[in-house]
Write a structure and sequence with these properties.
Blueprint: E1 6-7, E2 10-11, H1 13-29, H2 46-59, H3 67-91, H4 100-107, H5 114-133, H6 138-159, E3 172-173, E4 176-177, H7 179-195, H8 197-203, H9 206-228, H10 240-256, H11 261-264, H12 268-277, H13 280-297, H14 303-331
Antiparallel strand pairs: 1-2, 3-4
Length: 333
Amino acid sequence: MTTESNIAGKRNVSLDILKIFTMLLIINSHSDILYPAQIRFLASGGAIGNELFFLISGYLFSAKDDIGRDIWKRFIKLYIPAYIMIMMTLLCGKIHVDSIEVFVKEFIWPTHFWFVGAIFVYSVILYALKKKAKIDNKKSFVCFGLIVVLIDLLLYIFCIPDKSFWIVEDAYISIIPFRSIYSIFAFVLGYYLKRNWKRIRSRLSHGTVVTMAVVFFVLFYGFKLLLNRGIVPMPMQILSQPLTIMSALFIFMAFAMTDLNQKLDGKRAEHMINTLSGFSLESYLVQFLIIAGIAALNIVFPVNMVVCVVCVMFAAGILHVIDVKVIRAILRE
């Protein structure tokens, strides 16, 4: 994701803070091996974090006149850091390429880090939707949403045979992650919000948005609790997807409506927030190897979590410096 965060053309530091919050949510969700067994359920938040990631990316999406050049730049900026980490993961023995299908899945689509391939494909699709369907129009957006829901439901019903366990976030249909179907809606939703921000903002108070964020956040985790206890049948897990989208939507809006620009303008805190938020993509890429490495050190909880976050940010910063240099060399910027 780009480091530029703005609302209605004006930079909003709160979105940078949201990007950091999203990073922490996803790091936490992948850190179950760092938690003591009795509280391992606290390693959660990844589903909402993922949709926030896509929603923010869609909001920050900007189409250039030279579409071919822009798509090429997006490919390079997404895939170069991903390929660096894929090669490191391969050298660490975490990837085993033993077939053409595995090679395609790990390196091309959706890649070892599925969201990288997803963001790139979503960007290409959004170009088409913007040009052909005028997706910032309300009717076109609603129609697109209904199509996504229909495809999502049909694939869930007919292509995921065993729904007796939590599979909705982990299932693959061939080499395509099932969750990538509804995540594209979050991406397009972010773009729709940007194009219609003033109108949407004028109709909702900040207090209402914050309340809705809390309500949907509680509903999401309450629903998962009911699923895990067998009170709600596990095949109903598909309902977690709209709850995830709605949680991400209102959390995003709650941050976006919070104006911290004047309070932080020119201060060291603003620079630190901007710097850390600029590592968002790299933090997702490095965290898996870092978490595994911290787990091997057997550091006592919760010190291990603090060490993990610090190491992820440090490694993400190094990767960011490297990939920026490589990207500039390729694009000759």
